[in-house]
Amino acid sequence: MKKPISDPPACSTNLLAMNDTLDILGGKWKLLILHYLIQRQDISNTFKKMERDITGISAKMLSKDLEANKLVHREVKDTKPVTVEYSITKYGESTKEIINVLVDWGKLHRKEIMQED
Predict the structure, then answer these.
(1) Which of 11, 50, 61, 114 is most solvent-facing, going by the fewest CB within 10 Å?
(2) Where are the domains of the chain?
(3) At what angle do helices 30-39 and 96-114 cross, to 10 degrees?
(4) What sign does the dihedral 37-41-47-49 (CA atoms) show?
């Protein structure tokens, strides 16, 4: 007798892992913020800079979820006015491969869709 193609417990584990991933990285801004911070690790990333560079983002979108999940570090500087800087954490860098694959797929998809039949 042939073995089933998918093992239900493994499938269930994979679905749970995918659900966790989408919960943490899903949403319009989270991956954009992570990508932005990964690409700019050597410079100060204040909210003002991010607001200028990521069109449409607002302070509320700099999700505390990313900080709570140890992907982003938020540091309040003792300046006047107060400055808040954001940086990617070492753990946050683990999303780099995922983000690069999504960027590559996005380019491929855009090329496919923009082709005229």
Answers:
(1) 114
(2) 29-114
(3) 110
(4) negative
| Among 98, 41, 33, residue whose Cα is nearest residue 65 | 33
d(CA 86, CA 79): 15
43-65 per-position pLDDT tens digit: 889 888 888 898 888 766 667 88
Side chain identity, residue 90: K
Which residues touch 45 (CB under 8 Å, ≥6 apart)? Answer: 36, 37, 85, 86, 87
Measured distance CA(108)–CA(11) in Å, rounded: 28
Q: How far apart are CA 95 and CA 3, in angstroms?
A: 34
pLDDT, position 3: 58
Q: How many residues does the chain have?
A: 117
Query: pLDDT above 90 covers what percent of the chain?
Result: 58
Tell me how crowded residue 30 is: count the other CB atoms within 10 A of its CB: 20
Q: Please compute the mean of the pLDDT values over residues 17-40 and round it to a whole number.
A: 92
